[in-house]
Structure formats: C-alpha cells, structure tokens
C-alpha cells in the first residue's frame, strides 16, 4: 500500500497528502466523483481507466477540473 | 414541420442552445434550461474548488443523458490553453463536441481569429466536433468550415451586451455561403433579436445572459423558445417583399356607390 505524507500542488495550491497516495483516494477525500471530473498530472491527462493504478508522488502538479455554469 | 438541426452527427429538434452561467443556483439553471426547451447546454471548464468543497455538481442538475453538454473554452486567450481545456473537457466523458472560443481582447471579448483557427485545426485533427465562436466575418467562417468545424458561430454583438443583431448583412452572407450550420452566438438581448436572427436563416442561436440576466429568467427562457420557433417558421414561410407604397388588402372593386 502506498502510505505516505508529502506535498503536491493541487489546482495551483500547495496540498498535503497524507495516507493513501493513490489517485482514487484523493478523489474520494475531496468528495468528488470520477464521472464528474477530469485529472491532469504534470500536464498529462490521466484517463479514467488509469485512475486506480495512479499513485501520486511528492511535487506532482495535479489539476482537477469539473464543469461549472458558463455560456 | 421543421427539419431537425444536425450538428456533429446528431439531430436536435430545438434550435436554441443555452448557457448555464450567471444563474442564482443550480436549481434555477435547471428550470431555465427546461423552460427554454434547449437540448444542448454550454458549460465552462474550471478547477474544482478544493477549499470550499460542495459535493453538488452542475451535471447533477443537467443529466448528460438528456442534454448534449457543450463545454466551452471561455477565458482562454491562446490556442494552447483552449486545446488543453478541450482535452480535459473530453476526459470528463460527455462527448467530443466543444465550443471553441479564444478571446482576443478583455474589454470586447471579441475572438482572436488566427488563434481560433490554429486551435480549431488541432482539435479537428484530434476528432473533436468543433463549434467555434467567431467574428461575423464571412471569409473567416468559410475557412473554419473548410478546415472541418462542425458549425460556425458568428457573434451578433459582444458577449453579454444585449445589443442584438448588429450586422444582419454579414450574417446573411455567412448563411448564404455556409456549408455547415450557422449558429448565432452572443449578443442577443431579447426575444425579437432571437426571432430576427432566425428569420435571417441561421440554423440555431446560442445565448446565456439574455435569459440568465433577465428579471424573470424562467419567463425569458420561454420567450426565447417561442421566438426561435417563430423566427424559424417565418424564415421557412418566406416573408413578403418590402415595398415603399401601400398595396390594399381589401378588394378595390365592388365598392358601394
């Protein structure tokens, strides 16, 4: 299991990641659902099929987007 | 009976496309969209708010199985940003259709034409169904259609201005030349503007502020639905020629003496 504590950049802000470093754990902790978001790590889009196998590392730059009202 | 709007390989019976910005809350958004009868709704792509987490999401109110979700690239000032935004939007999983906008100027929000063309080329190559927001310039619209955009979306007036159809003659040329659907995007202020655009022969209208910014957005949504239908019907019916002098509607013979 990928148990750890380190810093990443999440949506432009420093974020302390503790415990499970797998991407689904972070998504879960943020109360998000995979079918409502898209994720980029270090400028590379992570396909949903790869979420489970994706483990975050110190210094990763993570972008998580969703849809909001717009014209 | 009107023919359906064919866009990106899909058929739609509504010719009104609505935005989801500037509403009071998601519930009002949902109700306004419902009133408008729209089947395609635009959304913006933004970072998830990490500090103020609400588990509610816009898509919980606008079911992607019922509506064609049309992510936009609003706020992008370069082709690179716009392409990156579209790639992310596609990864959410609501299809390949995107509203491409590359803004050239903060005050007018007019499009950056060369950057829009550059981004459109990349996106078309990557399999996106590209709907570009663009200046009401016939040559630019031709180029965008030639490079494979699924529609062209000339502006009627600046975004959110409510100025109406500022250049009906350019729109008429764009519509006459068009090999892809022409969607008037931006500038509509009230129902008569929408009807006018449809009477000119455009295939659909995209609007946000005119509905969301009205005192009663739900009533305006319904007004826009009716205006788009009325304008479309009138276009199909074929209006009379304009004349300088009167022609009597009643017989001129058989008058009592």
Structural class of chain B: alpha/beta
| Major beta-sheet overview of chain A | 5 strands, mixed
- Report the β-strand fraction of chain B as a percent range: 15-25%
First and last CA, distance of chain A = 43 Å
Give the biggest sheet of chain B: 5 strands, parallel
Which structural class best describes the helix and strand composition of chain A? mainly beta
Biggest interface between chains: A-B, 27 and 38 residues
Q: Are there runs of chain A of 5+ residues with pLDDT below 50, and where?
A: none
Strand order of the largest sheet of chain B: 5-4-3-10-9
Mean pLDDT over all positions of chain A: 94
> What's the quaternary structure here?
heterodimer
Helical amount among residues of chain A, as a percent range? under 10%
Strand element count of chain A: 5
Number of helices of chain B: 8
Tell me how many strands of chain B there are. 10
Q: Span between N and C termini of chain B?
A: 47 Å
**Radius of gyration of chain A (Å):** 12 Å
In short:
By secondary structure, chain A is mainly β. Chain A has one helix at 23-29; strands at 3-10, 13-20, 37-41, 44-46, 61-69. Chain B has a five-stranded parallel sheet.
Can you tell me about this structure?
The complex is a heterodimer of chains A (71) and B (257). By secondary structure, chain A is mostly beta strands. Chain A is built from 1 helix and 5 strands; from the N terminus they run ββαβββ. Chain A has one helix at residues 23-29; strands at residues 3-10, 13-20, 37-41, 44-46, 61-69. Chain A has a 5-stranded mixed β-sheet with strand order 2-1-5-3-4, with helices on one face. Chain A is globular and about 40 Å long. The N and C termini of chain A lie far apart (43 Å). In chain A, 25% of the residues are buried. The mean pLDDT of chain A is 94. In chain B, the strands form 3 sheets. Chain B has a 5-stranded parallel β-sheet. In chain B, strands 6-7-8 form a 3-stranded parallel β-sheet. In chain B, strands 1-2 form a two-stranded antiparallel ribbon. Chain B contains 8 helices and 10 strands. Chain B has helices at 26-36, 79-92, 113-125, 138-146, 168-177, 191-199, 209-212, 217-237; strands at residues 5-7, 10-12, 16-18, 40-47, 68-72, 97-100, 129-134, 153-154, 183-185, 204-207. In chain B, α4 (138-146) links the parallel β7 and β8 (153-154). The model of chain B has no long low-confidence stretch (mean pLDDT 96). Chain B has 257 residues and is of the alpha/beta class. β5 of chain A pairs antiparallel with β4 (40-47) of chain B.
């Amino acid at each position: 299991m990928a148990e750890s504590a380190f810093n990443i950049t999440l949506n432009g802000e420093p974020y302390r990641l503790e415990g499970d470093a797998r991407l689904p754990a972070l998504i879960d902790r943020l109360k998000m659902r995979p079918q409502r978001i898209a994720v980029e790590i270090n400028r590379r889009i992570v396909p949903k099929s790869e979420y489970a196998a994706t483990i975050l590392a110190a210094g990763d730059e993570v972008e998580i987007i969703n849809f909001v009202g717009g014209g | 009976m009107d023919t359906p709007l064919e866009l990106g390989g899909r058929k739609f019976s509504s010719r009104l496309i609505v935005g989801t910005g500037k509403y009071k809350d998601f519930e009002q958004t949902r109700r306004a969209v419902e009133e408008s009868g729209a089947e395609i709704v635009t959304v913006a792509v933004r970072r998830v708010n990490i500090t103020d987490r609400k588990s509610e999401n816009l898509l919980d109110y606008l079911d992607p199985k019922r509506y064609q979700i049309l992510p936009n690239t609003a706020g992008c000032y370069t082709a690179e940003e716009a392409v990156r935004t579209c790639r992310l939007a596609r990864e959410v999983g609501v299809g390949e259709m995107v509203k491409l906008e590359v803004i050239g100027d903060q005050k007018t929000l007019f499009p950056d034409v060369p950057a829009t063309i550059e981004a459109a080329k990349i996106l078309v190559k990557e399999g996106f169904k590209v709907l570009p927001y663009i200046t009401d310039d016939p040559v630019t619209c031709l180029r965008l259609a030639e490079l494979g955009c699924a529609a062209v979306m000339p502006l009627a007036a600046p975004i959110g201005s409510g100025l109406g159809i500022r250049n009906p003659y350019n729109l008429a040329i764009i519509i006459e030349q068009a090999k892809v659907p022409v969607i008037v995007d931006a500038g509509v202020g009230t129902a008569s503007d929408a009807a006018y655009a449809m009477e000119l022969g455009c295939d659909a209208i995209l609007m946000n502020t005119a509905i969301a910014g009205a005192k009663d957005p739900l009533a305006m949504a319904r007004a826009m639905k009716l205006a788009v239908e009325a304008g479309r019907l009138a276009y199909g019916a074929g209006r009379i020629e304009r004349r300088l002098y009167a022609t009597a509607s009643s017989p001129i013979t058989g008058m009592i003496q």
